[in-house]
Write a structure and sequence with these properties.
single chain; five-stranded antiparallel sheet; mainly beta; Immunoglobulin-like
Length: 139
Amino acid sequence: MKINDKYEISPFGNTFDSLLSLLTRNDHSPISHHPSSVSEYGNVRIRNEEKQVRIEFLVPGWKKSDLSLLIEDQQLRLVANPPKEKEQGGLFQSNELNVKVLLGEQLNTTKANAKLEDGVLTVTIPVSAKTKGRSIKIS
């Protein structure tokens, strides 16, 4: 049985190998082919919308006071440090978090805002107005 151009399952082949190849295949198409322009990288989702870029970080269990966002050198950086005091007998351990996302030059980073809700930190950055091309006189 042919699934697509890359993968084929033969009734006479090794069933385990066929199943394993189906589970581990990596045939994601490029981001530009998705109409919604959504990219996902681990715990980060980036949505390119018409008037803004929305970046969502999955940060379950983190408090607003433990997180900090920085924008410098066209990078958005999320830094999270666990509280210094350690609770004795706890089941969970919080580790430091340091995530960087490259930003395009067309974004108006001075108007960026962030909101933490239900373990998802959402950062929205508006797209700058596109400048029209102009003619330059040669002297």
